[in-house]
What we know:
By secondary structure, this protein is α+β, with helices and mostly antiparallel strands.
Amino acid sequence: MKKNYILSFVFLFLTQFLLAQKIEIKPYLQDAEPTSIKIMWQTDSGEESIVHWGLSKNKLKNKTKGTAFDINFTDKRVHEVSLSELKRFTTYYYKVQTGKAVSEIYQFKTPPFSGVTKKINLVAMSDMQYDWQHPTKFKEVVEEGVLTYFDENYEGDISDNLAMVVIPGDLVERGTNFKQWEEHFFKQSEKLFSKVPVYPVPGNHERNSEYYFKYFQLPKNGNPEYPEHWWFKDYANTRIIGLDSNDGYRNMKEQLVWLQELLEKTAKNDAIDFVFAQLHHPHKSELWIPGEENFTGKVVKLLEEFTKKANKPSLHFFGHTHGYSRGQSKEHKHLWVNVASAGGAIDNWGEFEGRDYDEFTVTQDEYGFVLATIDPNKENPSFTLKRISRGNNIEFRDNQLRDSITVFKKTIQPNQPILADFSKENQPIYKVVLKANSFKSDKKDAFHAASNWQASTTEDFSKIIYNSWKQHENWYYRENRQKDDDLSDEILDRKLENNTTYFVRVRYRDQFLNWSDWSTVKTFKTAK
């Protein structure tokens, strides 16, 4: 009798143990608002979806239930719980439960409403898809990169100092491979996304997979017939826009119409100072020309028009090319920023067809992430981008700052440059040397970051025969092609006509993307 009792007890214990749920994907945060947030996780089975939460780690007195849905046609379940009636800009603690499976306790911080004056941070990184030669590179970028950087440079938990992470595509190597989502993406990033909301857009490697759309609950404020393919999210004074540049969606007129209408509304919204768009494919790529897409060029044009009309700076984050690039539009306060690679194999210099584009100041074949710090200062809001590098397979870099730029909403023009007078004698028909004075500005810390020289055969510059735009630095193929150029002179390096009058002008730009007025026009005449 005693033996049968013991066997029954062992059988019951083993049955309960075997049937107990297991958390396979730890909790991660989605769609945060000042008064609400979504928490998701995955278990091997079980329908129960509970979040215990509260203002103290020791008193999780609130209990909220959610829903579970199948994934991959198995017993596995993805759980989603929406917390509401939260306080803005407040730290909360939580743990999740499915049956007997209970997570450890995590924390998050709700976003502020617009009008906050405290600086906020977001991280942009992309193309963390699995590299078979470096299988844990994404984990390294997250834990030794992002988490360590914030631990060393900020006080408090990362949830207090990082508002969100945006990912412009290629989260996994093959989006239709179910196991890759758990093993290659979520497990390698669990220490970050359990505390900080993540907002991706699909890349080509996602393959428009249903797994992508089940794992992420993004804002549903795009076209309702294409939910979560394009959307926007506001954080303080910045509007984050997610777009789908993949085959099958980049050619849809609906997406560009939606974007144009959204930008028109944003231009009139006094609460928004900046627009950050993210999409996967580049318009131009210095490391890999075949990866370029015309669709992104159309997006850039809309953002440039918005910036000019609204006087609100903008940028677009992208990936696809596995390396970092930072450039800027010539006529607008608009930045072009490739935020790869966070794990995918580096596109090394010389490995593919590339090109030195005028727009780009810096291109680096390195791993890393981009930190954006937004300062809502009411007198003159600004944002600063920093590239934090992990180096590459040839040279390791331990969170090294490799590039930085700050853009202000308010324009403070540099002083109008003054051209040297060279009209007293005839000039040769080739290699005419143009000169102007040194850069000056009333803006504190401003320096000479770019020059635009033009020559024309007409006084109104309707027939421009020379148009040179150069930056203060041009890092291409591991060298600065602008080294020792102070931008205050220019060789008009093209053959001119004999006995002809030419009109010349120049303008200067500071590192904050502010152009001066054009100089007073000067003339010269070539020899007979």
